Amino acid sequence: MLDKVEQKHGFIPRDISDEVARLLEVKLERLRRIQGKLDSTIRRDVQQHVSHWRNEEGNLIMILHAIQNQHGYIPREVAMELSRELGVKLARIYEVITFYHYFKLVPPGAHSLTVCNGTACYLKGSGDLINEVRAQLGIAEGQTTADRQIHFDTVRCIGCCGMAPAMVVDGKTCGHVKTSDIPGQVAVLKAKKEKVA
Ligand code: FES
Fold it and tell me: Comparing C-alpha atoms, which of 157, 155, 137, 156 is closest to residue 147?
């Protein structure tokens, strides 16, 4: 719109530029208020986690579990607040997060498909299932589709070795899975497309 005004007048009149500046300031103020609210929510949540685990040995891991349970992953701004609150270097916190496969640094997908790759499942062909999921989703294990709808992972054993090869789709355990079952399972998840933040 400003381009058109400039084309028409050869410059942007003072009253218009003042109005644009005013509107931008109003928007910025609104954004500052939203950011302030987010910051204080993060601070309050982190303080609660820290005070709950303060005197426990190995509390960093327990707090990280609590944060991941709350958000589904460890957001960077929460890790930064935790570093401040505990007086532990941010690098140390990231060392722990990246050491354990369980912790995630990006939001999980709206849906999940996990193939068991423990010994029993491996012997019954879980490798083929994994390859088929990779082909169907176009991603590797540990990754989430670009639209953040489906997260694909593998695990060591889900305790259903008698049903090997097994996998878990959105929390539901499926046993005696065949490679030919994978396209259908993926199609069902794709059809459940959900809004992600
Ligand atoms: S190894 Fe797959 S369920 Fe146990």
Answer: 137
